[in-house]
Design a protein that fits this description.
heterotrimer, A mainly alpha, B mainly alpha, C mainly alpha, B: mainly alpha, C: 2 helices, rod-shaped, Haem_export_protD_CcmD (chain C)
Chain lengths: 246, 227, 67
C-alpha cells in the first residue's frame, strides 16, 4: 500500500489526482443537489407534527454531519502531515478548513431558522447547538492561525498542530457540553427522531447528505489544487501546465 | 560539557522564570488585580442582590480566572523568544518538553497559585456560601494548572507572530470550555451541599492528560514558531 | 407533488419564511465559497502568467544588451 500511496506525496501527482477526482465529485454534487432539493422541498410528504417546517432538515442534517466529517478528515490530514511530514497533507488541512467552517455556519443558521418556529427561540443553549458553535470557533482558530503567519510553511504546520489539539479536545468539549446541558435545564427539548423517519423522507435526506459530501469534495479539491499551485508556482511543471492554458 | 540530570534542568528553568517574575512584581500583581477588577464589575453590572450574586458567583469567579490567566500567557515564551534563550532551549540536548513543563509550572506558580490563595477572599465578595469555599479553592487548584497547560499551547503557536495576543485568546478560549463547565458545576453542586467528587475527578483526569500530552504539543509548536 | 400551486409552495404551510431563509442562506454560503475558490484559482493562474511574461521580457532585454 505504501508503494501505491507514496507517489501522491509528490505535488504533481497529487494535482493530477485532484483533476481526475474532480469530475466525479462534481457530477455527484450537481445531480444529488438538484434531486435532493426538489424532492425534499416539493415531493416529500409534510411531517405530521412539524408540518412543512421540517423541510429544513434536508439541509440542516447534511451540513451538521459534514461539519463534523470535515473536521475529522482535516484532523486525519493534520496527523499525517505531522507524523510523516507530508506537505500535501498540510495543504489539504488548509483546503478543508474553510469548507468545514461554511458547513458549520450553515448548520447553525438553519438550526436557528428551524428552532424559531419549533422551540419559539432563534437560539437555545442546547448541547448540540453549543458544541456546533464551539466547532465553528475551532475552525476559525485554525484559519486565522494559518493566515496570521507570513511564512506559509510554518503556518501550515502550526495549523496542523492546532487541528490535532482541537480534535483531541472535541470529544471532551462535546461530552462536557452535553453533561452541562442536562445538568442545567433537563430534557426540555424533544429532538426530531431520525431513527424512526419514514422512507419517503429518509431517501431525500440521504441524497442531500451525498450532495453535501460531494460539495465538500469539490470545493476541497479546487482549493487543494490552488494551494498546490501556489506553493509550487516556481516549478517547471506548473509553468508548463499554465502555459498550456489549463 | 557537564551533564546535568533532568531534575536539575527542570529546577533551573523553573527557578529562573519564577525569580524573574518575582523581580518584576507587576507580573504577579497585575493578573490578581485584573481578577479582582473583573469580579468587581459584575455586581456593578447586574445588581447587588446577594442571592443573585451567590447564584452567579462560580461562573463569575471562573470566567475571571480564565481571563486573568490569559493575561500572563503571552509572557510565557515571549521574552525568551525575543532574547533568543528559547532557541537555546530547543537546540540543547535535553528534551524540550521537560523545559516546557518547567516553564508552564513556573507560569502557574506566578499566576495560578496567587489566584488560588486569594480565591476565598474573592468568593466572599460574591456572597458565596461558606460550604462552597472549599470547592472553589479545590477547583481552582486543579483547574488553573490545566489552564496554564492548554494556554501554553496557544502561546507557543503564536509566539512568533507580531500581534499574537488576540489570536491566542481566539485559539485558547474554546479549548477552555470543558474546564469551565466542570469547575463551575463542582462549585454549584457543593453550594447545594452535595458531593462534588465526580467533577473534581474529571478535572483531575484532564489535568493528568494535559500533563502528558500538552508538553509534546507545546514543544512541537515552539519548534514551528522558532524555525 | 405535495403542493397544489406555486403560492402554496412558497408559503410552505405558513413556515415559508423560515424554510426559505434557511435554504436561501445555505445557497448563498455554498455559492460564495465555491465562487471564491474558483476566483482564487483564476487569480493564481494570472499571477503565474504575469510572472512568466515578466521573466520573458527580462530575458529579451538581457539579450538585447549583449547585442
Amino acid at each position: 500500500m505504501w508503494k501505491w500511496l507514496h507517489p501522491y506525496a509528490k505535488a504533481e501527482r497529487a494535482y493530477q489526482l485532484c483533476n481526475t477526482l474532480l469530475p466525479y465529485f462534481a457530477v455527484i454534487t450537481v445531480v444529488c443537489l438538484a434531486v435532493g432539493w426538489i424532492w425534499g422541498l416539493a415531493y416529500a410528504p409534510a411531517d405530521y407534527q412539524q408540518k412543512d417546517s421540517y423541510r429544513i432538515i434536508f439541509i440542516h442534517v447534511p451540513s451538521a454531519i459534514l461539519s463534523m466529517g470535515a473536521y475529522s478528515s482535516m484532523a486525519i490530514a493534520a496527523i499525517i502531515a505531522l507524523v510523516w511530514q507530508i506537505r500535501n497533507a498540510e495543504l489539504a488541512v488548509i483546503s478543508i478548513a474553510p469548507v468545514g467552517a461554511a458547513m458549520t455556519a450553515i448548520a447553525l443558521i438553519t438550526g436557528a431558522a428551524w428552532g424559531k418556529p419549533m422551540w419559539g427561540a432563534w437560539w437555545v443553549w442546547d448541547a448540540r447547538l453549543t458544541s456546533e458553535l464551539i466547532l465553528l470557533f475551532l475552525y476559525f482558530g485554525v484559519l486565522s492561525l494559518y493566515h496570521a503567519f507570513e511564512d506559509k510553511k510554518s503556518a501550515g504546520r502550526a495549523a496542523c498542530i492546532l487541528a490535532v489539539v482541537g480534535v483531541i479536545n472535541l470529544p471532551i468539549i462535546h461530552f462536557s457540553v452535553e453533561w452541562w446541558n442536562t445538568l442545567h435545564q433537563g430534557a426540555t427539548i424533544t429532538k426530531f427522531d431520525t431513527s424512526a423517519i419514514d422512507p419517503s423522507m429518509l431517501w431525500p435526506l440521504l441524497i442531500n447528505i451525498a450532495a453535501f459530501a460531494g460539495f465538500v469534495g469539490v470545493v476541497t479539491l479546487i482549493r487543494l489544487k490552488n494551494e498546490i499551485l501556489q506553493c509550487e508556482k516556481h516549478r517547471p511543471w506548473v509553468r508548463e501546465l499554465i502555459g498550456r492554458g489549463e | 560539557m557537564a551533564q546535568h540530570s533532568y531534575w536539575q534542568l527542570f529546577s533551573s528553568v523553573y527557578s529562573k522564570d519564577v525569580t524573574l517574575a518575582f523581580r518584576q512584581r507587576s507580573e504577579i500583581v497585575n493578573p490578581l488585580l485584573f481578577f479582582l477588577i473583573v469580579i468587581t464589575l459584575f455586581p456593578l453590572a447586574i445588581g447587588p442582590e446577594p442571592a443573585l450574586l451567590a447564584r452567579m458567583a462560580p461562573g463569575i469567579i471562573w470566567v475571571a480566572a480564565l481571563l486573568s490567566t490569559m493575561l500572563g500567557l503571552d509572557k510565557i515564551f515571549r521574552d525568551d523568544f525575543n532574547d533568543g534563550s528559547l532557541e537555546q532551549l530547543i537546540a540543547s540536548p535535553y528534551p524540550l518538553s521537560l523545559s516546557v513543563l518547567a516553564k508552564v509550572s513556573a507560569h502557574w506558580t506566578t499566576t495560578g497559585l496567587p489566584m488560588v490563595i486569594m480565591a476565598p477572599v474573592f468568593a466572599l465578595l460574591m456572597n458565596l456560601e461558606a460550604q462552597a469555599l472549599g470547592a472553589t479553592v479545590l477547583t481552582l487548584l486543579i483547574g488553573t494548572p490545566l489552564l496554564s497547560f492548554i494556554g501554553a499551547i496557544g502561546a507557543a503557536l503564536t509566539v512568533g507572530l507580531q500581534k499574537g495576543g488576540i489570536l491566542m485568546s481566539l485559539l485558547v478560549l474554546p479549548l477552555y470550555i470543558p474546564v469551565l463547565i466542570f469547575a463551575t458545576s463542582a462549585i454549584d453542586t457543593s453550594s447545594m451541599a452535595l458531593a462534588y467528587g465526580g467533577q473534581l475527578a474529571i478535572l483531575g483526569a484532564m489535568l493528568a492528560i494535559a500533563c502528558v500530552c500538552a508538553p509534546i504539543a507545546i514543544s512541537s509548536a515552539l519548534k514551528v514558531s522558532v524555525s | 407533488m405535495q403542493f397544489e400551486s406555486l403560492s402554496e409552495f412558497l408559503a410552505m404551510g405558513g413556515y415559508g419564511f423560515y424554510v426559505w431563509l434557511s435554504f436561501g442562506s445555505c445557497s448563498v454560503i455554498l455559492l460564495a465559497i465555491f465562487l471564491s475558490s474558483l476566483r482564487d484559482s483564476k487569480k493564481l493562474r494570472n499571477e503565474v502568467r504575469a510572472q512568466m511574461r515578466r521573466e520573458e521580457r527580462i530575458k529579451k532585454a538581457k539579450q538585447q544588451e549583449q547585442v
